[in-house]
Design brief:
128 residues; mainly alpha; 6 helices; elongated
Length: 128
Amino acid sequence: MRPPAPPPRPSRQSCRRDGWTVARQLAFLDSLARTRHVGTAAAAAGMSREGAYRLRDRQPDGLFAAMWQRAMTPPPASAPPPESHMESYSDGRLMRLLGDRQRRNSAAAPTSPRPEREGTTAHRAETS
């Protein structure tokens, strides 16, 4: 008796019957890792949220389900925060900075009224 033949391996170019190509799966997982929102990730891949859940549930121990779990797992608390070119500001510090800028701008503003531009109604009334 012959052993059963292994299932054929899909090529990178083949399209699954359900539309979840390798490229769509990667786009979904990339977006899921960034947003942690299944609906948004599915839309980014051009698929439905329900279809994504069905694909994951078909093989709960498969690679797609494992990558989904990894994308949804928050980074450990001991992980260093991502480096940024901006330092962190509290709301109070931001308000003080914005207030200082507003005061500087109002102090530098000219105190005399702005001259009227040619073609405006006030300018035409003065020249008539």
